[in-house]
Give the backbone structure.
Amino acid sequence: MIVLGVETSCDETSVAVVKDGKTVLSNVVYSQIDVHKKYGGVVPEVASRHHIEKILYVFDQAMKESGIEFDEIDLIAVTVHPGLIGSLLVGFNAAMALSIACGIPIVEVDHIDGHIYANHLEHEFEFPLLSLVVSGGHTQLIVMNDHLDFNIIGETLDDAVGEAYDKVARVMGIGYPGGPMLDLMAATGKPTYKLPVPRLEKDSYDFSFSGLKSAVLNLVNQERMKGIEIRNNDLAASFQQSVITVLVEKTLRAISEFSIRHVVIAGGVAANKGLRERMENEIAKLEGVRLTVPSLQYCTDNAAMIAVGGYFYHMKNKEKKG
Ligand code: KG4
Ligand code: ZN
């Protein structure tokens, strides 16, 4: 079954062609990061306009690279939620136009489900599965006992992890997006700054990163006022250590409580080297639990993950109809 995926929820214009929910025939991603860098974050209006300019080119390129013709596409999968409304509309309208013109069924995919299913491109799911969702807009722990059976056991009460990375980077004067840069700096720094580890109540799976973000902000301002130079790499390492400690601790507790067999990490922050390493080390100590993470190209926004999500939505609908 050939699925064409379309993703335009934020600042990446992407179209992909995926076979049978796992074989990527093409995955073209046009990133607008360079456009938004000068503003220090994504400007919604500018993002929509760039999607309009690029979408047809990205469609063409994805079709060319896949080596298939339009009449071979069985399903179109398009992101409809969550995201910037103007950006989402560009992808949705393009997908809808193709659906009507070629008579191809269309399925609407949730962006976060797509991030989770990015993991399926390279690894079959084993249940019960635990998904740690860490993106620019979401932080969630989700238990799945079957495909598309999402039970959210914890989520952030304020900032998402990626958002906290980007805001801390901004305070430190590092460009947008801050996550990749902070990750790189943390690798050569030492966690010598004392920062809070926001664990919340003992048995809670929820997260909160705004206090940690404010602690970094206060520290930077206080040191600046005293004329003391911030050791940027050490501060990045300290911040990253606090974040990873919380994410890993809650993941490990959920593995034990829900008898998890497979852990996946989903969303842009899944690209974080420090998080991948710590999680790998900790889960390697457990018997009968497997950790898989997407390749870096499938961590941040891409249409291949939307195509896989759409494939599973379609399979489930077919099952329901008997
Ligand atoms: O999933 P994503 O591409 O977009 C959303 O759905 O939000 O995630 C983008 C987020 C940004 O906040 C970015 O700073 C963060 O992922 N990110 C990282 C890394 N790479 C991307 N954060 C930490 N370490 C990284 N290596
Ligand atoms: Zn995303």
Summary: Residues 232-257 form the longest helix (26 residues).
